[in-house]
């Protein structure tokens, strides 16, 4: 047993010095005090880092296919009435949606930005009794309503029961609806009257879109969209002055918001100086996956943007509007929050304590031997 004890004692890497052979100095006390303060400060700093989360960022190739892209927007046009403002989308696959109304809300605003009315598109269309039938007479009791398409019918069974259906029939024909005052459905729904009532007003339009996850664009334009360049004809029938497409983007995001990420177009404002024109935003959408410390995952997107304004003087064929072109990046970004592992924290603390004491010991030894050498020279000088 004694042999084992002696072997263990020989393995001791920390030999002890008898107190009779050790000395304490004032410089050693100062170094010890300073070292203790530095260790305490570094420990608190390391402990704060341990309590906070760290974010691990990775770039991977996006291998997902298909799916939908959700676009959230909130844009204010201070000089375009809500009735004339429409939203259209188009993508490279050829899918097109004109004058979108689903999940779209409009706020009529005056010249000072005050809200006059809030309405959801496609809801609350006015109705009147006894509309005009296709054959020319008024709708009688127990008779099925079938309104005229005013020459745009493609078959004898076609009916246009609303102003929008008449406009859609004209769209398909590639015609412009040049005088809505002559259309019974439009008069009943008060479309022209709405336009006249909203002269001088602006519009805030907000909501969301779901589009195919391919490159495309969505745009806001003053007036209803038509095929075959009939857009301008419709505008000229309702209003002859130039359109001011000044706008402010209160919010634009592709998907849910990600903590800590600020979208580059939020709060951006542009004021038009020349009459008419097209303002274009070109965005590159980057798929992003964010996982917080609790394991909750958000699949969304970030984007970068460049912008360009094209005056109607340069290209008179382009209808006025604000266009957002988007393209998808093949690279996906992943953010994952995590705590620093406890063993890493413990390792850092040991490194701090050991490093400070080692450096302090070297400094103390240097000072001690310097003082000792000075005292020795002083004693030799006295003996002489």
Automatic annotation (TrEMBL):
Keyword Membrane: yes
Localization: Membrane
Ranges that cross the membrane: 21-44, 342-368
Key words of the record: Membrane, Transmembrane, Transmembrane helix
A GO CC annotation given for this chain: endoplasmic reticulum
Record has Membrane as a keyword: yes
Domain Endoplasmic reticulum vesicle transporter N-terminal, chain residue ranges per copy: 8-97
Name used for this protein in its record: Endoplasmic reticulum-Golgi intermediate compartment protein 3
Protein source organism: Sesamum indicum (Oriental sesame)
Lineage start: Eukaryota, Viridiplantae, Streptophyta, Embryophyta, Tracheophyta
Gene: LOC105169218
């Amino acid at each position: 047993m004694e042999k084992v004890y002696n072997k263990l004692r020989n393995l001791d890497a920390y030999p002890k010095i008898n107190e009779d052979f050790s000395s304490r100095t004032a410089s050693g006390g100062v170094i010890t005090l300073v070292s203790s303060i530095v260790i305490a400060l570094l420990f608190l700093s390391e402990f704060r880092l341990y309590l906070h989360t760290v974010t691990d960022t990775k770039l991977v190739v996006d291998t997902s296919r298909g799916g939908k892209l959700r676009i959230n927007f909130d844009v204010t046009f201070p000089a375009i009435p809500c009735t004339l403002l429409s939203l259209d989308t188009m993508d490279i696959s050829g899918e097109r949606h004109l004058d979108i109304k689903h999940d779209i809300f409009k706020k009529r605003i005056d010249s000072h930005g005050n809200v006059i009315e809030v309405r959801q598109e496609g809801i609350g269309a006015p109705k009147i009794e006894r509309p005009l039938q296709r054959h020319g007479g008024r709708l009688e009791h127990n008779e099925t309503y079938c309104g005229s398409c005013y020459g745009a019918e493609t078959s004898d069974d076609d009916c246009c029961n609303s102003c929008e259906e008449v406009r859609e029939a004209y769209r398909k024909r590639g015609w412009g609806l040049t005088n809505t005052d002559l259309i019974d459905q439009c008069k009943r729904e008060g479309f022209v009257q709405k336009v006249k009532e909203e002269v001088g007003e602006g519009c805030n339009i907000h909501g969301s879109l779901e589009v195919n996850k391919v490159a495309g664009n969505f745009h806001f334009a003053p007036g209803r969209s038509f095929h075959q360049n009939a857009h301008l004809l419709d505008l000229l029938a309702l209003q002859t002055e130039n359109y001011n497409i000044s706008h402010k983007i209160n919010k634009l995001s592709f998907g849910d918001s990600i903590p800590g990420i600020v979208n580059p177009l939020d709060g951006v404002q542009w004021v038009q100086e020349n009459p008419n024109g097209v303002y274009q935003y070109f965005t590159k959408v980057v798929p992003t996956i964010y996982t917080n410390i609790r394991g909750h995952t958000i699949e969304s997107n970030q984007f970068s943007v460049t912008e360009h304004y094209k005056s109607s003087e340069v290209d008179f064929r382009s209808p006025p509007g604000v266009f957002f072109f988007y393209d998808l990046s093949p690279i996906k970004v992943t953010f994952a929050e995590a705590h620093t592992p406890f063993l890493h924290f413990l390792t850092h603390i040991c490194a701090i304590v050991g490093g400070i004491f080692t450096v302090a010991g070297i400094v103390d030894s240097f000072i001690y031997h310097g003082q000792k050498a000075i005292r020795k020279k002083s004693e030799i000088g006295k003996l002489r």
